[in-house]
Amino acid sequence: MASSDHTILQFSPSSTILSAKVHPLVIFNICDCYVRRPDQADRVIGTLLGSVLPDGTVDIRNSYAVPHSESQDQVALDIDYHHNMLSSHQKVNPKEVIVGWFSTGFGVTGGSALIHEFYSRETTNPIHLTVDTGFTNGEASVKGFVSVLLSIGDQPLAAQFQEVPLDLRMVEAERVGFDILKTTTVDKLPNDLEGMEASMQRLLSLIDDVYKYVDDVVEGRVPQDNKIGRFISDTVASLPKLSSEDFDKLINDGLQDQLLLLYLASLTRTQLSFAEKLNTAAQIL
């Protein structure tokens, strides 16, 4: 029985990237670029900077937007702007190199292959990061893709985007800034007294939580944790031993110092205003 040849459809990964780690600064920068985009632009495209770790993980640490224009069948990038921004970034962080590109929107689009082809000439195995700033599924979805070559036998046919795992975790120092930036937009910035009031309310809430936890442990409703108990003990021991009169005096002294600074600042502004008016009058006369 004669054997027949079969044409095999193959997916050949053109990338050794296994996963990607995205720092929160990158996400906030992409969202900021989207808010500041031109009125006629539907999405924002830009370059991702970072490094590739020995295990194949892409560490994305920085980004910048690249001006572009696109239609249904073509995309035009400002290549000169891209190279100038890259040169400026590498003067500050010479270890950061191009690791891919980003775009806003839900998933990949028809023009993504053209842009990915350009970044494939800028770096080997670029990663494509998408940030859904339109909250299509009710959340800002962040996904990463790499290019996979689709071929029939030995003949390359097309390129396909394959999703890779993303690590969006952050260190404690980054979490502090993240918690500040992710807060809901307010109508106005709080003044000193409003900020102090909000801080005191937060402190009282935390004290109530600690008090409830200690009470639950004493009553046997919650199992004890030696680490938490030691931390609470060290925190209480670090507080200065002040009587109610000393505490009131400390608060009043601090408040008087702040009022004095406000008075001096107001007095300085008034003197500068008088000096400016006198100089204007002298020039006129």
Blueprint of the fold:
Layout: E1 9-13, E2 20-22, H1 24-35, E3 45-52, E4 58-65, E5 68-70, E6 75-77, H2 79-92, E7 97-104, H3 112-122, E8 127-131, E9 142-152, E10 155-164, E11 166-167, H4 172-181, H5 192-219, H6 226-238, H7 244-284
Parallel strand pairs: 2-4, 2-11, 7-8
Antiparallel strand pairs: 1-9, 3-4, 3-7, 5-6, 8-9, 9-10
What does this protein look like?
The protein has 285 residues and is α/β, with parallel strands linked by helices. It has 2 domains: 20-179, Cytidine Deaminase, domain 2; 192-238, no CATH class. It is built from 7 helices and 11 strands. It has helices at residues 24-35, 79-92, 112-122, 172-181, 192-219, 226-238, 244-284; strands at residues 9-13, 20-22, 45-52, 58-65, 68-70, 75-77, 97-104, 127-131, 142-152, 155-164, 166-167. The strands form 2 sheets. Strands 1, 2, 3, 4, 7, 8, 9, 10 and 11 form a 9-stranded mixed sheet that branches. Strands 5-6 form a two-stranded antiparallel sheet. It starts with 8 loop residues before the first strand and ends with a helix. 15% of the residues are buried.
